[in-house]
Amino acid sequence: MSISMIGIDHNMAPVDIRAKFAFTKKNAGEAMEKIKNQNGIYGCVILSTCNRLEVWASVDDEVDVCLYDCLCRIKGITEDSYRQYFVERKDQEAVEHLFYLTSGLKSQIIGEDQILTQVKDALNLARENFAADGVLEVLFRMAATAGKRIKTEVPFSHGNPSVIHQAIGFLAEKGYSLRDKTCMVIGNGEMGKVAAQALQEAGADVTVTIRQYRSGVVNIPLGCKRINYGDRMEYMPKCDLVVSATASPNFTLKEELFQGIRTKDDLILIDLAVPRDIEPAVGKIQGITLYDMDSFRIEEVPAELQENLEAAGAIVREQMDEFFQWLDGRDLIPRIQDIKDEAVNDLNLRIAKILKKTPMEEDDRQNLVHAVDTAAGKVVNKLIFGLRDSLNQEIFLECVAGLEKIYEE
To answer: For the whole model, what pTM was predicted?
Structure first.
């Protein structure tokens, strides 16, 4: 069995290409079930975020499985030209990628912790759809453990980074202050709430759109105002900055909606959605500046983060070693069980004559044999796993191979 993945992210493809392969939560669940049901695939997890799409699978080494083809069939894509945007990783390379990713060390914004939640949510969704097998379950769980350790043990200097925080910093570098600015956030999901909170903390007057049928039951960040989603264009002329961050498959802001509306001369629109929330043509309207997810990428790691990155990397490597020890041990369990069975059988043959000559009832003799078998099995386990804990992996594997040879016919 192998661990395999394919992925597309903000480093390899622009937002419009990533959008073709993005999944909603519902669609991701259905896709995982379809992929797992294919021959040669034991388990599947799909990680779909604004910045990336990854398909993970545990696969049978004897079966030729192409995850890219599986994904394209589900998406109804027949063009092979998109293959250039994907990267494929297997086994150790794949495991290393997931650990570094979950720790925020491969994100568009180094050290951001939203990816940790997204990885855990991907595993939970796979569980709900009975798609994750034991190997992917442990892999994703241990990767999340590494991410949580880094979050608590490594003090990344820029606090709680996210794309909206990066956007605010980007604007600040251009001399744009949000203090007393009128801002609207379209969308009240996880990213929308983070955006509203960040804008408010920067000193803005923030209003959040709420779908009318949900307006009585949803919460918005403390201190923010609310309007119905249908009233967003009426509120637009008052805005200095608008953020759209929904999971809608359709545009929340189209070029045609701006006809007959006079906006401020320097209106800033920030699209944090994949697929896009804001029609690109809107950015060509006079007086409007449009930014998308790819506008705020970091080209190089700031020098002050290097020490924290090294500390985070040490935690990642430690947790990865623990996973590979588990994985190697999992593969060895059947071999160790065979050695134990052979040793117990050997003991039974050696004491059979003694027990037969021992005066006792047959039931008592059978109970004694069972007790001896149990005790012998525990002793063998203790010896073998004791060797595992005291020797390095290579020498331990040689010991296991040597024990197997003892009972070869």
So the answer is: 0.65
